[in-house]
Design brief:
137 residues, alpha/beta, five-stranded parallel sheet, globular, 5-hydroxymethyl-dUMP N-hydrolase activity, EC 3.2.2.-, DNPH1, nucleotide metabolism
Length: 137
Amino acid sequence: MRIFFAGSIRGGRQLIPTYLHIIDFLKSHDCTIISEHVASQVLEKTEAKMTEQEIFEKDTTWIEESDRVVAEVTVPSTGVGYEICHAVAHKKPVLCVYEKGAKVSAMVLGNTSKYVTAIPYSDKKQLEETLQDFLEK
């Protein structure tokens, strides 16, 4: 299964350890993460060599080529929101996970389409159970 992983880049990088945990969990369940770079410590330096147009085209193409999208939405990010919408427009199932108590956008939490599921987690075990459920659907 090909998964596009979305997480905040320019909005804040404080959840890189969580991004890595999600990616590692998905990879351990035979998933190919086509946007694994989101968890890279040097991503901003790498993307600085690309134009905004190149980033846009790369990410939207990857979303279209994916089977599903997993988005960590604890840290507000316009880019992640856009990626979620792009996935929905292409009828891709999207799982949005976020730390319990986070102030997540109403645009994410209020999306009741059949393509978006938003679920809070309070620890790694609960996060893994949510990811597992999403993979089994």
